[in-house]
Amino acid sequence: MEEGRAGQPSGLRGGGGWSEDSFEKEDYYRRPGKRKSRKKLWILVGCSIVILIVVIAVAVAVSRNKAGGSSATSSLEGKDRSQIPAKWQNTYLDPWSWQTTTDFNVTFTEETVGGLPVMGLATEWDDSARANERVPALGEKWGSYGERPARGVNLGGWLTLEPFITPSLFNYNRQMGIVDEWSLCKHLGASATKAIEGHYASFVTEDTFRAIAAAGLDHVRIPFSYWAVEVYDGDPYLFRTSWRYLLRGIEWARRHGLRVKLDLHGLPGSQNGWNHSGRSGPIGWLNGTDGQLNGRRSLEIHDRLSRFFAQDRYRNIVTHYGLVNEPRMTFLRVDDVVAWTKAAYRTVRANGLAALVVFGDGFMGLGKWQGLLAGADYGDMVLDVHQPTPTAPRT
After folding, report:
1. The predicted structure's pLDDT at residue 20
2. Mean pLDDT value of segment 43-47
3. Which whole number is the average pLDDT over 191-205?
4. What's the CA gap between 74 and 77, in Å, rounded?
5. Higher-confidence residue: 393 or 139?
6. In the chain, where are the structural domains located?
7. Contacts of 216 (CB under 8 A, 6+ apart)
8. 43 pLDDT more than 50
9. What spatial distance separates the first Cα and last Cα of the chain, rounded to whole Å?
10. Is residue 388 predicted with pLDDT exceeding 80?
11. What are phi and psi of 31, to 5 degrees?
């Protein structure tokens, strides 16, 4: 899987001939005024699978994506809040505390799969929809991605905040140092719930998925981060709220026949030190004092996620499962990242996950990965290469 990058030499399938050292990625992300959109060309490569996905990393028609029709509490009409046990009131399992209940099942349940709540999900689902007449319905086999390339869009800036995509959330004096989701949540404190859930509820709606399908696309990439599952050591992030919106987003994709690539964008400790990992600064994943601890925590996250998404409910719709977005392997030890990738792969496969497993090239280029994950033990894997292409010259 590859994101387009202009003006760079390329190796196998484009990649391989450059490193992040020649392109300051964070500088690119910090220049929202320099460009109007992000266009990315993806090529999925792995186990005889080549998928071409055009990704536009902006929200689809955000200005039109305001929830309409029903009120935020429409699903609670006639319900009694006493159905919620006292210990769960005013938590992520209490729909009376949610900013919207549209398209959520508000019947209370403590049921979990993989330790993750199913609260909000309908008990039935329908995989008969197709995105358009050129692709099979969700309940039918896609076939070879080499013969039928996927075409999709990335929902960046929704469940993992990115300042260049949603600058309004970061409209503070620069001296305050509010540069990522970590510092934003620290600054907002108790008001983070209102601000960030309000963003989750309005930035992407069902109209977003409807527009994606209407544009002739058939796949959608949904970035999210570890605090959808767990938080650690006083993390300020909004715990587990994005999980509910992720599950609803998948159901909206299902309704419009869109297949989903799940992308774990932020890992404990930060895998690259960039703002879209949640916290800018030092890399604490597989590096530093708590590096190995954060590596183990990340595997635990994948253990829980893969048990959840191995359910029959997701077998036809979650077609790609990303292990980690953009690990900065020009800084991290390559052997450590490869070993972690193998362990993560074994974990999700042991839990019955059938989706293609996606791993990042770490800015090493495709050629340097030849043979590192070879053999029958690592089947149906996809190499993810990002080559951001600015639309304006650097100054």
Report:
1. 42
2. 38
3. 98
4. 6
5. 139
6. 20-384
7. 132, 134, 151
8. no
9. 29
10. no
11. -110, 65
pLDDT of 102 above 80: yes
What CA–CA distance (Å, rounded) separates 372 from 340?
Answer: 12
Find the helix packing angle between 291-309 and 334-350, rounded to 10°.
30
Task: Tell me what the pLDDT averaged over the chain comes to.
Answer: 85
Angle subtended by helix axes 192-203 and 241-255, to nearest 10:
10
CB hemisphere CA count around 181 (13 angstroms): 32
Q: What is the pLDDT of residues 219-254, one digit of tens each?
A: 999 999 999 999 999 999 999 999 999 999 999 999
Domain spanning 20-384, CATH architecture: Alpha-Beta Barrel (3.20)
Q: 61-73 in b/e burial notation, b at 16+ Cβ within 10 A?
A: ebeebebeeeeeb
> What are the beta bridge partners of residue 266?
225
pTM: 0.84
Q: Around 95, how many Cα atoms within 13 Å sit in the side-chain half-sphere?
A: 26
- The residue type of 283 is I
Are the beta carbons of 182 and 279 closer than 8 angstroms?
yes
Please state, in angstroms and rounded to a whole number, the distance separating the CA atoms of residues 171 and 167.
Answer: 6
To which H or E segment does residue 49 belong?
A: strand 49-56
Note whether 220 and 153 are within 8 A (CB): yes
Q: Which two tokens stand for residue 167?
A: 């600058």
26 pLDDT more than 80: no
Length of the chain, in residues:
395
Q: pLDDT band for position 367 (50/70/90)? A: confident
By the 8 A CB rule, do 20 and 327 touch?
A: no
Q: Would you tell me how many other CB atoms lie within 10 Å of the CB of residue 221?
A: 24
Show contacts of 338-342: CB within 8 Å, 24+ apart.
338/372, 338/373, 340/286, 340/295, 340/298, 340/299, 341/373, 342/373, 342/378
At residue 66, does pLDDT exceed 90?
Answer: no
